[in-house]
Write a sequence for this structure.
């Protein structure tokens, strides 16, 4: 039966504090955390730099950003539109990588459940 703590109703067995400590020391868990951090932090840093590059470039180099490319469309407009594209690319990269993370989680959960019983 679904509950607030178990919305899927799978009757998941909760872990005690010492069992969580074992999970934290598990090499597979550490590899999962390392892999997630290895993607999330660089992707976030890249996007923040890319996002704030537009106002910085417009503020310090307006002549370069106002250069027309096609008709009245200038470099600044293209850069601003590219941010939407970049957000979707990063999202697609994360979705692809999340499948790998999910596999790592499934193996870890199976190991923990198998060892706990």
């Amino acid at each position: 039966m679904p509950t607030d703590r178990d919305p899927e109703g799978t009757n998941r067995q909760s872990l005690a504090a010492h069992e969580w400590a074992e999970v934290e020391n598990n090499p597979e868990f550490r590899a999962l955390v390392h892999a997630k951090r290895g993607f999330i932090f660089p992707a976030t840093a890249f996007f923040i730099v890319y996002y704030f590059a537009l106002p910085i470039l417009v503020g310090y180099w307006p002549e370069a950003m106002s250069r027309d490319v096609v008709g009245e469309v200038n470099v600044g407009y293209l850069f601003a539109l590219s941010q939407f594209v970049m957000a979707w690319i990063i999202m697609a990269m994360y979705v692809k990588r999340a499948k790998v993370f999910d596999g790592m989680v499934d193996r870890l959960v199976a190991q923990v459940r198998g060892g706990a019983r």
The first strand starts at residue 68 and ends at 70. The helical segments are 17-25, 27-60, 62-65, 75-116. Strands lie at 68-70, 73-74.
